[in-house]
Amino acid sequence: MNDDTEPPLPDRLRQLLSARRFEHITVFSGAGMSADSGIPTFRSGDNGLWHTHKPEHMATPEAWKRDKELVWAWYEYRRHFVMAAQPHPGHCAAARLQQALGAAIVTQNVDDLHERAGATDVLHLHGSLFTPLCAACHRPPAEPLPPPPLEVQQQQQQRLMPPTCQHCGGYIRPGVVWFGENLDEAIVNQAIECIRRSDLLLVVGTSGLVHPAASLVSVAKRNATIIEINPEPGGASGRMDFQWRVTAAVGVARIAQMLNRPLKKCSSNAPGS
Ligand code: NAD
Ligand code: ZN
User: Among 38, 142, 182, 210, which is 20 to 30 Å from 204 by CA?
Assistant: First the structure.
């Protein structure tokens, strides 16, 4: 377990954070944000039953057309996996930054860990595992989905027929934006607005490879302070004032502390809520 007070803030980062009072803060998170909760990023690779399937090949409209039972089972497994995970101190720190300082949270993640740490109004650029919809008429199912079947949870079954829509009989699909699909324009515009007016932008756990989300960082104004939190180099590119090679759980919590708002203990909600 990480001690979220370690390591100390690098001097240059401390200077940047104490140089001015930030009025508009945005946390921009990618898959690495949830890595410390045990949720694999696309680039870290999954294991078990799914190791033969590249995530990038499953998360496409073509994969759905080709084999919707395979794709639905994969998403149901991922939904289960997320429901069993817990937010970490970095998620809690981001939620506290929102509550205490009005920070915006823009995420590429399809999990609900920001929300379960207490954040509200999270802008999900790529949708959510928890908002399925009809592939034909785009309406949500009349009833919430039951928990994924045990065989899928336990990776003993790799195919599952998706439920059908009560309105039109179409298949229910995951409420995520697949590679090759357009992002929701209203959400993108809100995200652009948040990033554009930010004077502090925290870019957490994103490889910067998935567009157009990755290019949103470039709309930040010239005098904004932009800090990357990522243990690996080669992450989000573009203008960064500081690249802190640290995990999200440690980095976001330390920065939030530095912004001088003591963090309350995280109280996460029930999984899947
Ligand atoms: P990515 O998988 O391309 O890259 C992940 C980044 O996280 C890498 O740069 C890696 O160095 C960094 N990272 C790894 N461990 C970290 C840690 N402990 N703390 C901070 N950073 C860490 O992810 P991406 O850039 O978000 O784009 C890929 C797509 O994958 C997105 O569209 C996203 O929706 C999807 N995705 C989402 C989830 C999720 O919802 N949790 C999980 C996997 C993939
Ligand atoms: Zn329908």
Answer: 182
